[in-house]
Model the fold of this input.
Amino acid sequence: MKYNITSAGPSITQSEIDLVNEAVSIGWQDNRNLHIDQFVEEFGAYVNRKFILPTSHCTGAIHLALLTLEIKPGDEVIVPDITWVASAAPITYVGAKPVFVDVEPDSWCICPKAFERAITSKTKAVVIVDLFGNMPKMNELLSIAKKYNLKVIEDAAEGLGATYNDEPSGAFGDVSLFSFSPTKLVTAGQGGVFATDNEALFEKAKYYAHHGINKKPGEKYFWSHLMGYNYNWTNIQAALALSQLRRIEVLINKKKEIYEQYHHALGSVEELRLNQPLDRVKPCYWISVAMIDPSLGLEKEYLCNQFNSLGIDLRPFFYPISSMPPYQKYLNGKEKHLNKFSYHDSKYGICLPSGNNLTEQDIDIVCQQLLVELEAIKSCP
Done:
């Protein structure tokens, strides 16, 4: 039987459709920032940040963070080896060197000890990633960064809706970043946010994001003050994100229900380990992840291929970025040895379908098929 179970589809209701239609109908000329301004106000309040700059995507927001923090060629920026590649790629845009460190085996977030071991005289910043809707040991990481006078960028692209010590994901560090791509908890189709409490960083980011232009009264129109980029967002995207933001508790509850259904069906299976929050963390369960016991010899690519052939969009756990061809020139040759959890767990992790468009029946089918695959492997001589 062929199914049609997607990996990460959104929940779109009439409220999203109505607000986007409003933006399409009246969001021009004097109203061209109408929904952007509303989104900025409401999003800033939600993530507890003073200054919010919407961007065309989260990758652009990370690039802006590095530019405004004045990360330069020859500098080193520490980043976890397990994350989406966009957490690291912009480091190379500014000519700096990404330094990949190991993650912890329980949360798969950056390991504080690995972070501190990797610091050198050239280290200027760290990118802390809220992976899969979880959050790392933020107090320890921030303490280490303060000890060595390092800038902190919190990549909260996957963490929106999670909390650490009751503080929201994205409220930490010098700059934090968010994503509204089609797979995220809150989607705009595409988009990102640069967030900070530092007004000077915010003003500088605005210049970079719009071709070096930030027109003020009395200044020339179309006048670039510095070499900038085109990282602007549209009012239509903002309208979609705004409507989603106003439903965020519903979206988070749906993610939690999806995880709990997986946990109920699979949590007692000895050969599986589902993602679990750390102490002090309330996750948003953006993606439900299952780690397969290595003793079965069942690697992620095989499972993904099996499920995809059935019409179930199972995705692989992230690969270590240090294993990818574009990053070989930045390595010291010890990453595979030092980042042992990254290289080990990556082989056996799978991202279960977790979209807010899933039904209970969809999740039941995924669980049943996974149990069938495990039993088939276990019964092999």
In short: The chain has a mean pLDDT of 95.
